[in-house]
Amino acid sequence: MTLRRVNVIILVLLAVAFLIVVQRNLLNLSDFLHKENSDVGMILPFESELSPDLKLQLVRRGDAIPVVITAVEDRLGAVVAAMNSVYQNSKANVVFTVVTLNDTVSHLKEWLSDIRLKHVKYRIAVFNPDLLSGKISQDPQILEATKPLTFARYYLPAYIPEAEKAIYLDDDVIVQGDIQELFETSLRPGHAAAFSDDCDSASSKGIIRGAGTQNNYLGFLDFKKEAIKTLGMRANTCSFNPGVIVVNLTEWKNQNITQQLEHWMELNTKEDLYSKTLAESIITPPLLIVFYKRHSIVDPMWHVRHLGSTGAGNRYSAQFVKAAKLLHWNGHYKPWGRVSSFSDVWDKWFIDDPTGKFHPVRRHSGDR
Ligand SMILES: *[C@@H]1O[C@H](CO)[C@@H](O)[C@H](O)[C@H]1NC(C)=O
Ligand SMILES: *[C@@H]1O[C@H](CO)[C@@H](O)[C@H](O)[C@H]1NC(C)=O
Ligand SMILES: *[C@@H]1O[C@H](CO)[C@@H](O)[C@H](O)[C@H]1NC(C)=O
Ligand SMILES: *[C@@H]1O[C@H](CO)[C@@H](O)[C@H](O)[C@H]1NC(C)=O
Fold first, then answer.
1. Which region is the signal sequence (predicted)?
2. Is 25 in the pocket of ligand 1 (CB under 6 A)?
3. Which atom of ligand 1 is nearest to the CA of 24?
């Protein structure tokens, strides 16, 4: 009698053990398949047939990696391609905060509902351009050239108030490495942000001297102005590019970085502090002042830039571009435009606009 009961118990235990083994193998299999497919940006063909438990596995757990990116209506394809590249190249729990203008929200939502992006976690934050009134020049010509959303990075804590650490990315980037690695960039105590230096090894490969590419403070700020002089900064200090930022939001808030940046924007409207030859974004000068000798460094391979500059991007070898963890098409020639270097790399991550409003230009150049 007792013996038989023991047998039953053993049988039950064996059955349970068997089920556990099967379950684990299935989980690993789905893990494996997902990984295999992520390279080409596809989802599992039979995903919807998995049991609810297995489906849960595809929902990424672990600590959230907050990524802030902006979505500009007339180049919405950029942010979609960038997000797709970040997501497909990582297994981390990436959570995007997409900052955009009110009028763009519905177009953006429709695009992000694409089947290839259906597991991407994101929320939309609406930028209020009134924030900038009195802080940027009212000169209509300058106003026209100023994209309000480029200032969103000055206000990072407002968009992700609960985060301690976060990443900011420009929309004209493609990420080829695992974003987890960028997130793990260490920030020195007392530093609110990390950037890539403009004289680092990767960046200097793309620089053509005298072709308008600036790499020191003199290229961004007018050192003849009293307000700049009194800061005692060295004009030949290497500048940095704010298209990729790793941020400690606690420090950012403690140091009132947003208010400091606003202060310099306002002062510039009165005293014209920026360099007359400023070729790049007016976003950069206030950041250079506020973070002078107070920022950490982003690995150069995590910000390979100038792909959109005249000729500069073409100087990179195909191997170098392949090895880059992040590619940035800063400059005039965007990868969705008619002429651009390495637009084939960008094309791999682009997803067609369901509303048909956005087209990479070159695809239609034959029609004209
Ligand atoms: C399943 O994968 C985990 C880690 O991903 C590993 O530790 C475990 O040994 C694997 N199990 C089997 C049965 O392959
Ligand atoms: C934002 O857009 C929605 C719908 O398009 C509209 O109802 C709302 O009034 C807009 N809000 C602002 C602040 O413009
Ligand atoms: C951010 O800064 C705060 C304040 O200095 C510090 O306590 C914290 O460890 C930092 N966090 C990270 C992730 O570096
Ligand atoms: C930041 O601003 C708050 C409130 O305006 C002020 O109390 C604090 O002293 C400021 N901190 C720094 C470091 O400027």
1. none
2. yes
3. 13
Residue 89: DSSP 8-state: T
The string of pLDDT tens digits covering residues 51-104 is 444 444 467 878 999 999 999 999 999 999 999 999 999 999 999 999 999 999
Best mutation site among 253, 256, 258 for ligand 4 pocket (most ligand atoms within 8 Å of CB): 256
Domain definitions of the chain by residue range: 7-37, 62-367
Please answer whether residues 153 and 242 qualify as being in contact, where contact means their C-beta atoms are separated by less than 8 angstroms: yes
- CATH number given to 62-367: 3.90.550.10
**Cα separation, 58 vs 74, whole angstroms:** 33
pLDDT of residue 39: 33
Taking CA atoms, 164 is separated from 160, 167, 248, 302, 331, in Å, by 9, 11, 6, 21, 31
Tokens of 321: 């571009």
Residues in the chain predicted with pLDDT less than 70, given as ranges, are: 1, 21-58, 138-146, 200-213, 279-280, 311-314, 363-368
Question: What pLDDT was estimated at residue 58?
Answer: 62
- Give the whole-angstrom CA distance, residue 367 versus residue 254: 55
- CB neighbours of residue 91 within 10 Å: 14
Tens-place pLDDT, residues 358-368:
999 875 444 43
- Taking the C-alpha atoms of residue 334 and residue 330, their distance in angstroms, rounded to an integer, is 8
Quick one: tokens of 179?
A: 């974003």
Ligand of minimum distance to the alpha carbon of 103: 2
